[in-house]
Structures are given as structure tokens and as C-alpha cells.
Amino acid sequence: xxxxxxxxxxxxxxxxxxxxxxxxxxxxxxxxxxxxxxxxxxxxxxxxxxxxxxxxxxxxxxxxxxxxxxxxxxxxxxxxxxxxxxxxxxxxxxxxxxxxxxxxxxxxxxxxxxxxxxx
Length: 119
What we know:
Radius of gyration: 14 Å
Helix content: under 10%
Order of helices and strands: EEEEEEEEEEE
Mean pLDDT: 96
Distance between the termini: 39 Å
Number of strands: 11
Shape: globular
Number of helices: 0
Structural class: mainly beta
């Protein structure tokens, strides 16, 4: 069982920045991938950014060039730096981890942290 705890959400104005943090209960080296997803009210959960243990990264089209995912292995923490925020970025942001096991790949989710961007 991997526990993920997000923090760093809040209320900001358009154009401002936020950095989200996700603390994992175990070493990041044991995880295949770490990512951030978001879900706005009435909408599906969408991928924001993913980083694999191999170093590869993926960003959703809506955040490319504005958001940056990074990881601090010593702190078991993955970050999401969000710059140039706009009201369309308002959503609950969830941390995600994928771990390999004898039963296959298992996905874990955090409880989420709310981001609200006012215009």
C-alpha cells in the first residue's frame, strides 16, 4: 500500500504561481511512475503531468510550457510547479503513483488538493 499526501493547493489570482507537493510513504525508486491529475466539477479526471523512473516526462496539452513536474528522491516527494495560472486550471489536483507487483501494475491515489484560480 502506497500512501500519497498532497499539499500546496490554495486560492490564487490569474497569472500567479503555485507549487504542489506529494509525499509518498515509500521510496520513489520503487515506483514505476508518479503523476498529477486534475478534476474540475462535472468533468472527468485528466492527466496533467507524469514522470517515470526512467526520467521520461509527459504533459497534458493544456499545461505544456506552464507546469513542471519534478521529484526529490531523498524526500520521497514529487512536485508540480504551476506558473501562469488561469481560471481554467481550477480543479482538484490528485497525486498518482504506479507500482509494479506480482499481480501487475497497481495504481494509487492521494486525497487531492484544491486549486482555485480567480480572474
